[in-house]
Amino acid sequence: MKIDTRKFGTIEIDSNKILTMPECLPGFPGFTRFALLEDPKSAPFCWFQSTEDPSLALVIMSPFLFKPDYRFNLDNVINARNWSGVKEENLIIYVVVNISEREEKKNSITANLLGPLVINSENNEAVQVVLSDTNYSHQHNVLDGA
Amino acid sequence: MLVLTRRAEEKIKIGENTVVSILEVDGGTVKIGIDAPKEVTILRMEVVEQIQKQNIESSKRDVATINSAAELLKKRFSGE
Q1: CA atoms of A15 and A35, how far apart (whole Å)
Q2: Among B55, B67, B69, whose Cβ lies nearest the Cβ of A28?
Q3: Which of A19, A26, B36, B66 is positioned for an S-S bond with B52, CB 3.0–4.6 A?
């Protein structure tokens, strides 16, 4: 299927790879369908692109590249979403990345470790989890661990 | 918004399964206990707002900014 994106124009996406977010993304109510766009030029970042709003695309990356010991309670996520029986290796974790505008010259790259995105590759559902009772930062300095 | 005045050790029942208890009032701080079914998500509002804000900011970045940040990160990862 074809989807419109503001950043990349109209692109072709395998419709089997469309992800649904029944609970939407915090900050963007009403949008439930997304696609993961990868581009060698922007790796290790990739784009979490809405298929419904061309201008909605978040920058995400694997947290394990800069924080190998990143952990949170996946059982809570599995129970809350009714994903019982899912294999843990089929839950793919990303975090939302920001390049600080103010400090752009210093290339400050932060990742939100408080709100990981969990993609269930068995049913193509995704959820952004809000972690409580953790010391992780919503603006973790990615370059610190790199 | 419904506004109720409660004292320490008093409670509020919401629906069938949720009870909010005022445990302690000390100056400007109120300690609250919440009994709710485990499928009900209870979050500090400021955490939710931080996540919303990070999402909204992230969606504003243009491809050139991200690609140059990716270059920087790749250099760091490869130890250059």
Answers
A1: 9
A2: B55
A3: A26
Whether A43 sits inside 8 A of B70 (CB atoms) is yes
Greatest Cα pair distance, chain A, in angstroms, is 47
The tens-digit pLDDT sequence of chain B (80 residues) is 999 999 999 999 999 999 999 999 999 999 999 999 877 888 889 999 999 999 999 999 888 889 988 988 888 877 75
Looking at chain B, which runs of residues are DSSP E strands? 11-14, 18-26, 29-35
Helix (H, G, I), strand (E, B) or coil at A104: helix
Nearest CA-CA distance, residue A35 and chain B, Å: 14
Cβ–Cβ below 8 Å for B55 and A43: no
Give buried/exposed letters for A102-138 (b at 16+ CB in 10 A, else e).
Answer: eeeeeebbbbbbbbbbbbbeeeebbbbbbbeeeebeb
Nearest CA in chain A to B56: A27
Q: Return d(Cα B71, Cα B55) in angstroms, integer.
A: 22
Report the C-alpha gap between A23 and A26 in whole angstroms: 8
CA angle B47, A127, A92 (to 5 degrees): 110
A57 with B53: Cβ contact below 8 A: no
Q: What is the pTM of this model?
A: 0.86
Contacts of A34 (CB under 8 A, 6+ apart): A18, A19, A20, A21, A25, A48, A49, A50, A51, A126
Residues of A in contact with B54 (CB under 8 A): 96, 98, 112, 115, 138-139
Strand partners, A103: none
